[in-house]
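Example 3.2
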Amino acid sequence: MKKAYIGYDLGDGETITDFVVLDGVPSRQAPKTVFVSMTMPDCNTPGQAIPTAFGYNEEGALVFTSSILADPECVKNIRANFKRRPTDLIGPVSPERREEMLNTLSKDPDARFPELETRELQDFQEAVVAYTDGIFKDPKYSETVRGATLGCSEIIITAGHPTRWDDLDVAIYKSILGRSCLGSGAYLGLKMTLMMAAESRAAYLYIKDSANASLPKGTCALLIDVGSSTIDLTAMSADSRNHQYNSGNNYLGVRSIDYMIRDWYLGKLREDEDDWMDFQTLIESNPTADKALTLSCRMAKEAVYSIAAMKSRISFADFTTMKITQETVNDLIKTMPIGPVLDNYIGIPQAQVQAMGKKTWAQLFKEFMRDQKAQMTAQKLTVGRIILTGSASKMPIVGEIVREVYPELSGQGVISDMNPSRSISMGLALVGTSEETTRELEDKLNAILEKDVPEIIDQDIPELFSSLSGVISKVVRRIILRCAADWRKGVYDTLDDMTAAIERECSKEKLNVLLNKDTKYQEALRHWMVDVVSQDIAKRLQALCNEFGMENISLNDLNVMKVGSVNVGTISFNPVEDVMSIVSNVVSLLAGIVTAVILPTVLGIVIGIIGIISLDLALLLLSLLMLIPGWGWALIIAIAGYAAWKLVKEGAAGAKEAVAKKIQSAKLPTRARKLLTDQKIANKLDEANLDQKVLDSLDTPECRQKVAESLTDNLNRQIVKRMENIKYFIQNK
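Structure, written as tokens:
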């Protein structure tokens, strides 16, 4: 059955979609994919991107760039360059809260959180939804899709996101897109599925064939996608079976140059007092008209680096048209700091502004490329070819800087994509087709995620509890011995005071602090996560890989909690995710479960044990005092009375316990306290069998269930990420 695939590249500067139909034959067996060049709304040229901008005319209808530029005075609520990283718009969120939000959004994209109700994020959502609906509901656009999908059973739409966005960014962005027509589940009467994909993966799938020709043996091709808001890098192996390196920068796109040109234009406008007053009057009457000016400046920048450079002019409303040259733009790129520009017009995080300092775009791009080269060199990756893509790659300075950083690549070592505006959208369409080739693998992987992973966690929990019970009991034991020593020194007046102090020191809050400082506790959590659970899951994943003919993947390669390259046959590539960070986060998550679920259960047992030990110590002390005629007997009589002492001496039932309780509340002299030596107290602790009692309190159905539920989602996400890389190999076997 035929299926249609649409790649949706919503960029900060421009937007385009690409379309392909396949007959259900796996792509590795199908003839070369043929893309349909889509005509975007407000555009007459098939396959041409449109600026990411919209507004509303006097009738309240949504309009695109041509209407905005034709009449910026009348088009209201203009929005342009609105693509933002979602988590930059929600303020600080704790790691635990981020995890909670991510888990919830992964299951329910419509879930609401107070953190997502900020004005900035709501503005972003409104812009994305309105613009997306404006494209996909456009009559001419939708009719083109309708005609091309005759005989299709489903439409798969893949939306791209910058590679360096984290999982929460992607989840929020998908949730936002789901509020547009793309989240309805149907489009033009056909079933519709919305997918998300990293833009570097999309570019890789589109450009990979270009990486093969005359690529030196043992080297990789480096794809550099220079966009309006971000830069993405992907290094590909010589046979293009997988990517070896993914990186990028969320803030170093070229949109800052649009604003630099805007400031240059306004500086020229200020030279004419009448023009400047007219401009201020226009902005007062239509505050968003300045978006149209920025849009005009962006289009002038593009013209500067095109074959129409001689015609590059900034035209805005009825103001004087100004010509801008490539020399002027290059001067801005090389001399104007971009941090203050982005801070003023975009409002990027202050940490990023400070990191940029007073450096220009040219300086920052060169530093970025040098840093990326150093990182790839450290990972023993040798670049044999560089492919520049993204609309901004047309700027000569991009190629100049890349060649300066890679002087060893001469001639055709650095090439430009001939269709940079469509490389991402075409690749996004291919992401959908590539998913079809691995559908069987995905089905079996999903079964592992749903059934096997929870079962593996559950079967390994006793080993975790065994380790934790030993660590927790040792921490509690140290608390008891320390407090007992303080009682012997007179810090506490009575055994009851000592018991109360032990209970205070064993509160959940204080015990949690002590455990988190305990290296053996941290190592127990890490060992269980990395070497037990993740290794057992890796064994199951290895069986799945073997089933699909990949028998050379080691357990360490499949262990999502271990650092190192993943090796598929002779091909090696580094995990996309920061494994050290993941291990730290998962161990912190596990520690949080211990604090919230396990410690309260343990504390009830510990406090009961402390009470028993206190009584046992009083009984032991009574026995020792009974062996000392004279002052020992006199002390017992002073505490409990002659009658009680006589009953104890005669062995009356219950007499020792009654006197021992009085000893617990008595302020004893130093020489009596010294009768309870450290060794005698330690022996009493041994008799209490603290380890086993703590273990018994841990291993309850509630604790097991909570641990399994809390870890499953987190581990499953890491498994999917690791298997995503391996799928590159499967689809090209």
